[in-house]
Amino acid sequence: MWTVPKPKYGPEVCAEGQISVNIGGVRLVLFGDVLSRFPESRLAELLTCSKKNYKGISSLCDDFDPNRKEFYFDRDPDAFRCILDVYYFDEIHIKNGICPICFIKEMEFWKIDPHVLDECCKSYLSEKEEELKEISSKVTVILEDLEVERCVTRGQKCQRFFWLLMEKPGSSLAARVIAIASFLSVLISAVVMCVGTIPELQVTDAEGKLVEHPTLDAIETACMAWFSAEYVLRLSSAPNKLHFAFSIMNMIDFMAIIPFYVVLTLTYLGTASMMELANVQQAIQALRIMRIARIFKLARHSAGLQTLTYALKKSLKELGLLLMYMGVGIFVFSSLAYTMEQSHPETLFRSIPHSFWWAIITMTTVGYGDIYPKTTLGKCNAAVSFLCGVIAIALPIHPIINNFVIFYNKQQVLEIAAKRKVELMEKKSSPEMKRRKSEEQDTIKSDTE
């Protein structure tokens, strides 16, 4: 229901207290009482502006026809229809097909406060602003990769060369080969760590203990030498070494390297009495187990793993609900199982905390069979817990997959948009560069003459 008069479309002549505007070829007659609701807006200023004050009128509109008393604006008429809503409903909704960033500029032109945007449009606008920031950051990275000429000294050029070589696989063929070699080194190191635990492939040392085969140990050492050299080169060539050192992926790289050198130090520099201590041996074993952190290095070379990590991060709410639901179910069903199984003389449920393990493996559909109900009520409780566990696990799968697909497609679009923006910037700058070069050549010729 309209509580105030609607704007008139068409060739009607505006009466007293009305103004006629032409927005991109669309003519409207607006009522002064409606426009006065926002006195600081551009349309309200036109209403109060004198028809004889051509200087003031020209500062508010693109053109003015005094015979028809019509103000002309070279603006988007679809966006203006949305702008008009604020005079009637005190809020604005951005219609589909209108760029929210351009619409904000339209609101600034018409002098409308951005706070009148509805909450749904504000969230949509913030999402688009984040996308623009991501595009801007990607453009900055691409331009930094292209503008090697900015490096003045030989040291800066060398640092830039090694940074592109170690961090940007798409910059050159050598960088792509190094990225593949790094990826294969991670896989080989992981395979060697697994194969080294096979008793048939181990050898006996002087004390009669099984240790890794010397060949596997040599491969392990070669991989660690590669990882160390790679990390040192990346750190030394990083533009911001502090940011590099405290990055998550680089911290994983460091944690994957340091246990090798700690074990090496304790093994070859430690005294015999020191190595006989049980705590030292346990520490060495724990550091060897930390070698599994190397598998996370694969995430640096895989966009899919990075996308999956982001999808899980965006789905923390769903995962939290899953854990809460599973926690409540485990507590309820383990308590019921303990109570129902107490009537059986050979019950396997000794306490409620001991029953937690049964509830976990039942609701997650694992079912090791080491603990199970023996009474009829206990079996019915197990069936219900199994069904609840299946439902609980299945619920967050769709949001996680949806977040994964959305982020992956978004990254592809942002990559294309960033590359297109760089191409446009290069096309715009190429005539400017040619003009500067021609001016420099002209100045050189004039100087020689």
Descriptive account of the structure:
By secondary structure, this protein is mainly α. It folds into three domains: 123 residues, Potassium Channel Kv1.1, Chain A, CATH 3.30.710; 141 residues, Four Helix Bundle (Hemerythrin (Met), subunit A); 84 residues, Helix Hairpins. It is built from 19 helices and seven strands. The strands form two sheets. It has a five-stranded mixed sheet. The protein has a two-stranded antiparallel sheet with strand order 6-7. It starts with 7 loop residues before the first strand and ends with a helix. Keywords: Cell membrane, Ion channel, Ion transport, Membrane, Potassium, Potassium channel, Potassium transport, Transmembrane, Transmembrane helix, Transport, Voltage-gated channel. It comes from Knipowitschia caucasica.
Condensed summary:
The chain has 449 residues and is mainly alpha-helical. It has helices at residues 32-35, 42-48, 54-60, 77-89, 100-109, 119-146, 154-167, 173-195, 214-237, 241-245, 248-269, 272-275, 278-289, 298-301, 303-314, 316-341, 352-363, 376-394, 397-448; strands spanning 8-9, 18-23, 26-31, 63-65, 70-73, 203-204, 210-211. It has 3 domains: 8-130, Potassium Channel Kv1.1, Chain A (2-Layer Sandwich); 161-301, Four Helix Bundle (Hemerythrin (Met), subunit A); 314-397, Orthogonal Bundle (Helix Hairpins), CATH 1.10.287.
